[in-house]
Backbone:
């Protein structure tokens, strides 16, 4: 096999999901209510996830897709068997915090929740699949939001530390790859989803967001410290919503604007990977007069307990301009970008840029020199199944093949260190951004629609068999 065509030995191929987008069973076995449960599909969704509209419980006239999602809670053995058939080496999933601590501030965990994930992890190992576990994937118990104000409150450090200690102790030997917070930089763009924050009138919103960011960053360092103490085999990563920002033109003002947007994007990872706040962030806070509360002990924790690897989602690159009014906008992963005239777009307006993934890999590697893990990448599209649930999804295959080839070039030609790749939504699930089911990413079709109708029946798409070949050949089947 040509070395140029294949990936490194031991490369971790797999797929990714999130508890709130696939598990359902929102009140079974003692699970408590979480922020992600009370976000409906429809026109109010964006206002709620960005903390502009308060919705702390279910209300009449709305449909809440996370209540049932794709009911993986009752189908996980069937689903993991399908992942095993594809040859997954790893499966990225997340813990629903409110399954383990229903309110979030209890002293003792919920055994039924712990047992569910233990069974799930054991099922993965049955097929030789290594779990990659996100501790918090846009997931905060509603009690912590109502009682404490979410991550704006320092008390959440104590509750998160207890959650981590419980997970690392219970799953020692079953899980060794951990991510502390999913797309941690989303906190700045979707504060309710990212940090359980709903803004009060008259609050300094920037100060609230960055105070919450500090608390999450310290919590991430605490988790890293605990993980290494409890099991030295543990590897802990951070997770970024990535995608290089291009200047719209070579006008230096556009280049400067792109650099500013990259700074905002990398801020969290600069701290998690390097161990200290970057000067550009300190100067930004100074300009805005933000007064953030942080202790010397916090800063020592950040310095001494940096992450082992950097993981990220990549769907598209972005474009920035000093005068954005002069350009058309495009859709993106919660935060929009300017339209790139050189790129095609998906049905949801997300632009498709495989070379941008290679560029992003190089930028992150050059910046941090830490191993990387691509934990989300995929194409959201409307699928048209036949009577047996089979989908000819060549558009998805084309998208993924182009991105996998770009990864391969980054490893073999540029020398970046990449541990693995998990496609987003390896089984169809509820979209985090829009709440839709019709926006599908998976290799496995799930009979479920935007209104919550359907049998939950699983069926294999054409891409299922294609990805199985990619994994079996370690990427070589894609050719040049």
Residues:
């Amino acid at each position: 096999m040509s070395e140029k065509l294949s990936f490194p030995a031991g490369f971790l191929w797999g797929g990714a999901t999130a508890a709130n987008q696939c598990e359902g069973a929102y009140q079974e076995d003692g699970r408590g209510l979480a922020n992600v449960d009370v976000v409906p599909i429809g026109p109010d969704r964006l206002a709620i996830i960005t903390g502009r509209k308060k919705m702390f419980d279910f209300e009449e006239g709305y449909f809440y897709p996370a209540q049932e999602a794709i009911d993986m809670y009752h189908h996980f053995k069937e689903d993991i068997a399908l992942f095993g058939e594809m040859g997954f080496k790893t499966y990225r999933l997340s813990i629903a915090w409110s399954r383990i601590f229903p309110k979030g501030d209890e002293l003792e965990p919920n055994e039924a929740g712990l047992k569910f994930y233990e069974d799930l992890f054991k099922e993965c190992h049955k097929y030789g699949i290594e779990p990659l576990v996100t501790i918090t994937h846009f997931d905060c118990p509603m009690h912590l939001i109502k009682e404490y104000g979410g991550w704006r409150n320092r008390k959440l450090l104590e509750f998160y530390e207890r959650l981590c200690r419980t997970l690392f102790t219970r799953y020692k030997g079953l899980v060794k790859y951990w991510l502390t917070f999913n797309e941690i930089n989303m906190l700045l763009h979707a504060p309710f989803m990212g940090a359980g924050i709903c803004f009060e009138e008259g609050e300094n919103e920037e100060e609230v967001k960055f105070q919450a960011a500090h608390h999450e960053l310290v919590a991430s360092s605490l988790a890293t410290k605990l993980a290494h103490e409890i099991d030295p085999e543990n590897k802990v990563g951070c997770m970024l919503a990535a995608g290089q920002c291009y200047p719209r033109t070579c006008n230096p003002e556009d280049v400067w604007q792109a650099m500013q947007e990259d700074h905002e994007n990398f801020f969290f990872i600069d701290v998690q990977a390097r161990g200290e706040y970057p000067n550009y962030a300190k100067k930004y806070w100074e300009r805005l007069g933000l007064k953030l509360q942080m202790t010397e002990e916090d800063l020592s924790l950040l310095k001494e307990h940096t992450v082992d690897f950097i993981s990220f989602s990549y769907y598209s690159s972005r474009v920035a301009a000093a005068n954005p009014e002069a350009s058309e906008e495009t859709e993106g992963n919660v935060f929009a970008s300017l339209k790139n005239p050189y790129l095609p777009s998906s049905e949801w307006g997300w632009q498709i840029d495989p070379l941008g993934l290679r560029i992003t890999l190089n930028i992150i590697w050059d910046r941090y020199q830490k191993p990387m893990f691509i934990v989300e990448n995929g194409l959201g599209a409307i699928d048209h199944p036949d009577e047996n649930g089979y989908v000819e999804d060549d558009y998805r295959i084309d998208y993924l093949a182009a991105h996998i080839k770009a990864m391969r070039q980054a490893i073999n030609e540029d020398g970046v260190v990449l541990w693995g790749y998990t496609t987003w939504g390896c089984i169809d699930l509820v979209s985090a951004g829009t709440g839709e089911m019709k926006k599908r990413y998976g290799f496995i079709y799930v009979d479920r629609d935007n209104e919550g109708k359907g049998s939950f029946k699983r069926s294999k798409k054409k891409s299922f068999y294609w990805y199985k070949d990619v994994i079996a050949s370690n990427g070589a089947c894609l050719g040049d």
